[in-house]
Amino acid sequence: MANAESHPPNSASAALRAGAMGGFCAKPGILLVVGLGNPGAAYLHSRHNLGQFILDDLARNLNLKWINNRRLNADLARGRLGRQEILLARPLSYMNDSGYPVQRIANYFKVPHEEIVIVYDDISLPLGEFKITRRCGSGGHNGMADVCDKLGECVRFRVGIGSKPDKEMDLKDFVLGKFSDEEQAAILYAMPTILTAIKSLANNPETST
């Protein structure tokens, strides 16, 4: 089965029917879903914090409550999705140092690295589209590079923020900038599809390949 599939915002049903999760299936135990981003109000609505924005919506969707865990340097929300126990995590480190808190959370809860899903922003995908890949790799994303350095293995859930409107624009300025009203509307439109795809990783009954 293919290692990665990309999906436009309204393709969740077709993607799931086609087995687009890349054969991934959570085993008994905890499925850890991590949203990458930067801490603090200044970064709250930036493109680079899209992973944490998505996890906030997922927590609301599942009626889970965030609890700050200083020892693990993260906000955590724990519950069940069908028969699968699920743990959501928002690391409180800065983006480029995401790997260490993710590693500590995984070790503390004894989560195998192949059962860790990392949700994060990607400039190589159109706004609102997502791609699921069953191997580590950064694609130039510094936060994901640090996660891969610490874990070696995980499931990447990349969500597109689109490309820079101006080629001369500094990449840092773009990813740390806020979504426009139109972009926010596009993300909100795509959100049900994105949440369905994340939840399918816990509910997929097929055996991992």
Please, could you describe this protein's structure?
It is a single chain. The protein has one domain: 3-Layer(aba) Sandwich (Rossmann fold), CATH 3.40.50.1470. 33% of the residues lie in helices and 22% in strands. The chain has helices at residues 12-17, 50-61, 99-109, 142-151, 171-176, 181-203; strands at 4-7, 30-35, 67-69, 74-81, 84-91, 116-122, 130-133, 155-160. An 8-stranded mixed sheet has the order 1-7-8-6-2-5-4-3. A hairpin with a 4-residue loop joins strand 3 and strand 4. Mean pLDDT is 83; it is low at 1-5, 10-27 and 205-209.
Brief digest:
Helix 3 runs parallel beside helix 4.
Map the helices and strands.
Layout: E1 4-7, H1 12-17, E2 30-35, H2 50-61, E3 67-69, E4 74-81, E5 84-91, H3 99-109, E6 116-122, E7 130-133, H4 142-151, E8 155-160, H5 171-176, H6 181-203
Parallel strand pairs: 2-5, 2-6, 6-8
Antiparallel strand pairs: 1-7, 3-4, 4-5, 7-8
Helix pairs in contact: 3-4
What oligomerization state is this entry in?
single chain
Class derived from helix and strand content: alpha/beta
CATH homologous group name: Peptidyl-tRNA hydrolase
Low-pLDDT segments: 1-5, 10-27, 205-209
> C-alpha Rg, in Å?
16 Å
Q: What order do the strands of the largest sheet run in, or round the barrel if closed?
A: 1-7-8-6-2-5-4-3
CATH topology: Rossmann fold
Query: Helix-strand pattern, N to C?
Result: EHEHEEEHEEHEHH
Number of strands: 8
Highest-level CATH class: Alpha Beta
Beta-strand percentage?
A: 15-25%
Total DSSP helices: 6
**Total domain count:** 1
3D shape: globular
Gross CATH architecture: 3-Layer(aba) Sandwich
Helix content: 25-40%
Mean pLDDT: 83
